[in-house]
Amino acid sequence: MLSRTMFRCGQMYSRVFAVEVDLLTEPLYFTLSAKPHILHHDYQRFFGEGKLFSLYVDSDNRIQKAQTHAEIKTKLSKLERDCVVLETCSYIPDVKNSVVKGFCIRDKSTPGISEEILKTFRQNESVCVFSYKLDGQYCWQELWSHVNQTEKAERQYITPASTPLYHPSTLGIRSSDVFYSKEEAYMVLQECSDILPESKAVLQLVDEQGESSGSDGFPVIVIEGLDATGKTTLTEALRESLNATLLKSPPQCLAPFRQCFDSEPPVIRRAFYALGNYITAAQMGKESLKAPVIVDRYWHSTAAYAIATAVSGRVENLPRPDSELYQWPEDLLRPNLVLMLNVNPEERMRRLKDRGQDKTIEENELEVNQLFRLKVEEAYKRIQNPSCISVDASPSPQEVLQQVLRLIRNKCQL
Ligand SMILES: Nc1ncnc2c1ncn2[C@@H]1O[C@H](COP(=O)(O)OP(=O)(O)OP(=O)(O)O)[C@@H](O)[C@H]1O
Ligand SMILES: Nc1ccn([C@H]2C[C@H](O)[C@@H](COP(=O)(O)O)O2)c(=O)n1
Question: Domain spanning 182-411: which CATH class is it, in words?
């Protein structure tokens, strides 16, 4: 009963499967073939330890797909004792948006505790579970879910595949993690409006703000940076010094919805932040006719956090510096200047501790996950048109303000 999208039209054999065995090394890549293939030692070791399963979520409905993926992640995170859960994905080389995300479960417990959880997904048409068997130098994959007792599952043999040019986690970013037009993000919230009523309210706010007019008025200056680098402190000081209007993205009108969208899967959460930028852009257009505008976070934040989260593993796995993924959306108002505040990790930790407020999951992640922080910082630097100018934000607030005022006067003739 191979009816799901990923198996349509015999796609199975043209797919490459990538398992993220360890964040610091390349994933293990393999394809499938109908004939046995002798595996070398690394593959034998990977497939031979304990019981091994993989699980993929696929559906033509991207909202349902994202939610099922998130539910599975939560369920699998409860697996402890002798179980390891790894990220995996499958894709067709050079085919955009062909990525299907999943998990790989290695279970060394007896009796296998993961099977109870995996059985709960059997009813779900969009979830496929495979099991793996190593026999000498060969290994095969079988469909484990959706196979009835009398039916014999077809075997596909594991065949090593070479490392692709682009890390597979970069393949599905466009329109799933980063949106390059208002329409793309708008459609996501439209698609989930039945299951998430808050989406309707957000869309209404987007409609009410209307389009942003490009402004030839006063300059618009965006202040970016990781949390606790001093954005709030600096933007408030700039407002006073320049008699400017201070805006934020996401804008104040979206504050009541933020917590709700922060707990949704990436495609929904990122669409929410993307739309927040368009509301802020409309405000920028209006306000910059009256005074200089200072903006606390904007598209650099949206894209950099989204890309860094979507890309697993090392900084080298990020899309290449010349990738179109770092290009500014054509329909989003461009600021005149984007400044990125940088402080060293120790100073940032000190400021975070002193402040002691609640942190978002991503802020916590920045603290515990050095790789994630490096990827966010690097993605910030790679964003183009406009790119950001780095500012050393470790001196005192007064010194940072003076440094930034000099830059603004220099670049914006203020
Ligand atoms: N230049 C500075 N030197 C020392 N401490 C600073 C400086 N700028 C800000 N701080 C302190 O660091 C902490 C974080 O600053 P702030 O809230 O301005 O950062 P932020 O970038 O807006 O953070 P978030 O993005 O999480 O809201 C605050 O306690 C603030 O008083
Ligand atoms: N324009 C924006 C602003 C924020 N975000 C996301 C990125 C992080 O997850 C988080 C950081 O915001 P803070 O806690 O500092 O207010 O919000 C975004 O995607 N786009």
Answer: alpha beta
CA–CA distance, 286 with 383 (Å, rounded to integer): 25
Q: Which of 264, 272, 273 to mutate to test the pocket of ligand 2 (most atoms within 8 A of CB)?
A: 273
Please report, for the chain, the start and end positions of each structural domain, with discontinuous segments joined by +.
Answer: 2-165, 182-411
Contacts 24+ apart (CB under 8 A), 132-136: 132/47, 132/52, 132/53, 132/54, 132/158, 134/44, 134/47, 134/48
Predicted TM-score (pTM) of this structure = 0.94
* pLDDT tens-digit series, residues 225-278: 999 999 999 999 999 999 999 999 999 999 999 999 999 999 999 999 999 999
Q: Which of 71, 64, 74 is nearest to 192 (CA)?
A: 64
pLDDT for 80 beyond 90: no
Mutate to test the pocket of ligand 2, among 222, 224, 301, 358 (most ligand atoms within 8 A of CB): 301
SS3 content of the chain, % helix, strand, coil (to 5): 40, 20, 40
Token couple for 312 = 């697993």
pLDDT given at position 6: 54
